[in-house]
Amino acid sequence: MITRMAAGAGGVALRGALALDPDRYDVTFIAGGQGITAGEARGPAEPAVLSGAEAVNDAPAGDLLLDAFKAGLQVMRLSTLVPQISPRQDAAALRTLTRLLTEGGYDVVHTHSAKAGALGRIAASRTRAARIVHTFHGFPFHDFQARWLRAAYVRAERHLSRRTHAFLAVGGAVAAQAIRLGLAPPELIRTIPPAVAGRDAEPGPWSRGLARRRLGLPPGVRLVGTVGRVDYQKAPELWIDALAETGDDVWGVWIGDGPLRGRLLARAAKRGVAGRFRLLGHRDDVAELLPAFDVFALASRYEGLPCALIEAVGAGVPVAATAVNAVPDVVVPGETGLLVPPENAGLLGRAIRYLLDEPVEAARMAATARDRLGGRYTPEALGAVLDHTYRWSIAWN
């Protein structure tokens, strides 16, 4: 169960599900209402529940529920399961989820993301589900919220923890924070890898050349790129400010889309980088485009452990990122990349410039980072953890 079946949490959930033994597990995804039109969402009194082909008909770009359906998994979409707080829709979604779980007779209910994690665990406990598992991909609270709002989220998560049999966390720092705040008992939480697709044996000049031709870049330009949703979490305005600090000879590319798209483009124009910046929107060929980057830059205010970061490291791209949540699990300062404080565009720009101006050092850190990935971030590794967690939950319960 997941609020938004998109890259990041959606990708981890899907790759983990596909790595499970199909002879042992029969998987159904219940996702939020992204993609349901107003005519189909008949209001809180009678929420739309679409199943199978209807659930993925006219799916928006980047919606992974379609990928789940094509892979042979059962899929449902619930119109009232939305990311924002909406008392009427949330109450309707809870009623519907309770009904769906009762009718489905599921052995394990596994929730992802904040809203689906809350409503899904309440519904599962109401139906006396034998095994309830929740994955922390990050948290709905962060240091840039009002203190009262952050405290309310923490209290809610502590309450939900009493309805959960096992917890998974994307990244060691995320798991540590959950334990420190009392969101999960230490004996019931396990760190999982944010699985990404397979990597080439060794990225080479041919992959870089192909990627640059795909982007249509002028010859010889130096390129800073990132991948992610254009929203507050990813700090797009600060990313543009960092690009502006690197000098007129550096281009920027953002792969992804989101609600702050207009602000991102306006910021690029204001800072005088619009002519050397491209917002590509959603792309299905991210893995093929990453080798075009000279530096992967992450400006996020808060994170779990972004899959795009793992993919960039796997592509051999040097990384400059903000030191938030589980990012330091992968980016070790001076060894596997450079870290800066969040909301400091000047320092991020300096870190990017250093990696561009010191290519030998940048290549050393990129190679070390790639070597350290090993086999930890593969779908197979994630599938093994899920299988153990589900079966352990059964025995524990």
Strand count, sense and barrel status of the largest sheet are:
6 strands, parallel
Strand order of the largest sheet: 10-9-8-11-12-13
Structural class by sheet pairing and helices: alpha/beta
Cα shape: globular
First-last Cα distance: 21 Å
Mean pLDDT: 91
User: How do the helices and strands follow one another from N- to C-terminus?
Assistant: HEEHHEHEHEHEHEHEHEHEHEHEEHHH
**How many strands in all?**
13
Q: What is the helical fraction, as a range of percent?
A: 40-55%
Q: Could you tell me the strand content as a percent range?
A: 15-25%
Tell me the number of helical segments per DSSP (H or I, 4 or more residues long): 15
Low-pLDDT runs: 35-46
Query: What is the gyration radius calculated from CA atoms?
Result: 21 Å
Features of this protein?
six-stranded parallel β-sheet, alpha/beta, four-stranded parallel β-sheet, 13 strands, 397 residues
Task: Give an overview of the whole structure.
There is one protein chain. The chain is α/β, with parallel strands linked by helices and 397 residues long. It is 41% helix and 15% strand. It contains 15 helices and 13 strands. It has helices at 9-18, 53-56, 65-70, 87-104, 114-126, 147-161, 172-180, 205-215, 236-244, 261-270, 286-289, 307-314, 345-357, 359-373, 379-396, and strands spanning 28-31, 49-51, 74-78, 108-112, 131-136, 166-170, 189-192, 222-227, 250-255, 277-281, 295-298, 319-322, 338-340. Strands 10-9-8-11-12-13 form a six-stranded parallel β-sheet, with helices on both faces. A four-stranded parallel β-sheet has the order 4-5-6-7, with helices on both faces. It has a three-stranded mixed β-sheet with strand order 1-3-2. α9 (236-244) links the parallel β8 (222-227) and β9 (250-255). α9 runs parallel beside α10. The radius of gyration is 21 Å and the shape is globular. The protein starts with 8 loop residues before the first helix and ends with a helix.
